[in-house]
Design goal:
heterodimer, A: 444 residues, alpha+beta, Beta-Lactamase, Helix Hairpins, Heat Shock Protein 90, 3 domains, five-stranded antiparallel β-sheet, five-stranded mixed β-sheet, 18% strand, B: 219 residues, alpha/beta, five-stranded parallel β-sheet, 8 helices, 23% strand
Chain lengths: 444, 219
């Protein structure tokens, strides 16, 4: 069953047709029966009429024809007591078509079947046989009966149309609900509207809402759990950092265990921060706040914020470009920039170069970060976007990184309808990461 | 320099106390908001380092209660939450500064030093980077012992850069340091002052970060 409407129209129409047919059949039969009785009575009364004329034997045959002419297809024979034919209509022969016994009977003559009625005048002892062709009788009866049955059959298409319309009208609430569900954003877990819901659907809507609610709660719980866990981890990490710092006095800084401990703590700390950011920027949970913002100033501020990681590695960072505005979510763009700059610094050796440029074309802001690091092999460009993927290369092994960076970048670009392009940098070696963001969100 | 450290996590409290004492701060540790409020009544510290997540009340509540009585007392918030609204809430409630866990230890010490210098409670209020010494109390700059004549604006710029050594300061940020003195400045005045400063001190001491601003390297 593909459509309730089609199913119901077909089934209802079929049932109505069947019932109408049965009713018509029954009506036909009983009408035929009744008309049969009626015609028999007519036959008897014609016989009576002939009888009562009382002068049967004196009337020329055509005069009697006039008497019975009103009833089409009716014929007669008049016999005297000696069983001699006195008179007959042209349509009947001179011999007996039925034996002279009072009452109704059938006879076959001249290729037709006749209904006959014989009666004898008790005084003159004259027999009168009146006969009627059954086919004429049937044709007449059928005409009458069919005239009453045909309209019932003829109105079936009209009934079908009416049923189609009424069912369509009745199914409107279902269609409305279906449309509401269809037009819904897949991320939207808000309850369905319970206003104007018909009784039959209210259970469905209520249980859907309950399901949506449970889903929303479990999403929220999952998000809060991850966020809380990451937050809770910040405190022990702080403690680790502090105690490691204090250890510097007791342990020489070039101690291998100290170095590895330091690196592990940094890596763990970095990963937790990235997880927090990821949970905050995944589209399902993220409530964005788009506004007009100077992208050049954002980049400048983010470099200032992170300058220490460049100066620690004695990397030369430069910013090139112009000031212009885009429509963007400041929080996530800052995270995007932080990740890109972190990556650039991470994969660029001590004393290397990083060149950042902010330019615009007709519809897009073009943000490029080029470094003089080891770069990424072209065939790995696609892989860097996979969450948790870290390029396991000897050269990059010692650098910090959770592998979450690029997937965070990807999330944020999705949010902004932006694009990322990887290429070789303008330096001898290294990676160029180009971010393309629409200037105006509405144009997308 | 007396610090009241309000932190319920003992691993952090013990470690931080040890670390700060090594930096010649006098540290007093308490673990609850109520204890912090009581402690401030008993003996007023110079600085409070306040954790936002405390067992009995939030750090913000403690901050508001203490702020009510001591408007000038420097309070530095420590928190595991770093959403912008948390930050704004903290600063609106009257915090002087805000550090997110896990914070950089050097960053914490640097911020404490800035507060300390602002309070003027330091015996040795000098910032030394390489051969250059900036004496905040005397408003003097010397290179390898020899005094250098600087205008007040040049001095303010150099101080701002040296206080944030290792960081970069944008032209706008440097302008703000001067605006603080109610000075009218033309658009290229920062460049002019930096140019003049470079003539008076080691040329490579202040580096230009193209497109971003100026920076002084850490020693």
């Amino acid at each position: 069953m593909t459509s309730i409407r089609r199913f119901m129209v077909i089934v209802l129409l079929a049932s109505i047709t069947l019932l109408n047919f049965l009713a018509a059949l029954h009506g036909y039969r009983s009408s035929m029966e009744k008309s049969h009785q009626l015609f028999d009575k007519q036959l008897a009364s014609i016989s009576q009429l002939l009888m009562n004329s009382g002068v049967v034997q004196y009337i020329p045959s055509h005069n009697l024809d006039v008497v019975v002419a009103e009833s089409d297809g009716i014929a007669y024979q008049i016999w005297n007591d000696n069983q001699t034919l006195i008179q007959r209509s042209e349509t009947l022969p001179a011999h007996k078509i039925v034996s002279l016994e009072a009452g109704y009977s059938y006879a076959n003559y001249n290729g037709y079947r006749w209904r006959t009625f014989a009666s004898q005048n008790p005084i003159s002892k004259i027999w009168i046989v009146v006969a009627e062709r059954t086919d004429v009788r049937y044709t007449l009866a059928e005409e009458v009966v069919l005239n009453s049955v045909i309209p019932i059959v003829a109105e079936l298409p009209l009934i079908g149309l009416l049923i189609w319309l009424v069912i369509g009208w009745g199914l409107k609430p279902i269609n409305r609900l279906a449309a509401e569900l269809r037009n819904r954003d897949p991320q939207d877990l808000q309850p369905l509207s319970e206003e104007n819901v018909v009784d039959e659907l209210s259970v469905l809507v209520e249980s859907s809402n309950e399901l949506l609610n449970r889903l929303r709660q479990s999403f929220e719980r999952e998000r809060r759990f991850s966020s809380d866990t990451a937050h809770e981890l910040r405190t022990p990490i702080s403690a680790l950092k502090i105690h490691l710092y204090n250890l510097k006095i007791v342990v020489p800084e070039d101690n291998e265990s100290y170095q590895l401990l330091n690196l592990s703590i940094q890596r763990m700390s970095h990963m937790i921060e990235q997880m927090l950011i990821l949970y905050r920027t995944v589209p399902e949970q993220y409530v964005d706040n788009f506004e007009r913002v100077d992208v050049y100033a954002l980049v400048q501020n983010q470099i200032i914020e992170q300058y220490q990681c460049f100066s620690d590695k004695e990397q030369l960072i430069e910013l090139d470009g112009e000031s212009f505005e885009i429509t963007a979510d400041v929080f996530s763009i800052n995270i995007l920039l932080k990740n890109l700059l972190d990556n650039a610094s991470k994969y660029t050796p001590v004393g290397g170069n990083i060149l950042v440029s902010v330019k615009q074309n007709e519809n897009h802001a073009i943000l490029a970060i080029e470094d003089s690091g080891c770069g990424i092999a072209e065939e790995l460009y696609g892989k860097v976007f996979e969450r948790y993927y870290r390029i396991s290369d000897q050269k990059t092994f010692d650098t910090l990184g959770s592998g979450l960076g690029f997937s965070i970048i990807h999330h944020i670009l999705d949010l902004h309808n932006g694009e990322i392009v990887l290429d070789k940098s303008c330096f001898e070696t290294g990676l160029k990461v180009t971010i393309i963001l629409p200037l105006d969100r509405k144009k997308q | 320099m007396q610090i009241l450290l309000v932190e319920d996590d003992s691993a952090i409290a013990v470690g931080l106390k040890k670390l700060l004492m090594k930096e010649d701060f006098v540290v007093n540790c308490v673990a609850t908001g109520q204890q912090a409020i009581n402690q401030v009544l008993i003996s007023l510290p110079d600085i409070i380092i306040l954790d936002v997540g405390l067992p009995d009340m939030t750090g913000i509540e403690v901050l508001k209660k203490i702020r009510g009585r001591h408007a000038e007392l420097p309070i530095l918030l420590l928190t595991a939450r770093d959403e912008i609204k948390d930050k704004v809430e903290g600063l609106n409630a009257g915090a002087d500064d805000y550090l997110t866990k896990p914070f950089d230890i050097d960053e914490l010490i640097a911020r404490l030093r800035v507060i300390e210098r602002r309070l003027g409670t330091v015996k040795n209020s000098c910032i030394q980077i390489g051969a250059i010494i900036l004496d905040i109390e005397k408003h003097e700059v010397s290179i390898a012992g020899a005094l250098v004549e600087l205008s007040r604006r040049e001095y303010m710029l150099l101080k701002a850069l040296m206080e944030r050594a290792g960081h970069v300061l944008s032209k706008e940020q440097l302008e703000q340091t001067l605006y603080g003195w109610g000075e009218e400045i033309s658009s290229n005045s920062i460049e002019v002052h930096i140019h003049n400063l470079r003539k008076k001190i080691d040329k490579s001491f202040i580096s230009t970060i193209r497109g971003i601003g100026y920076s002084v390297k850490k020693s």
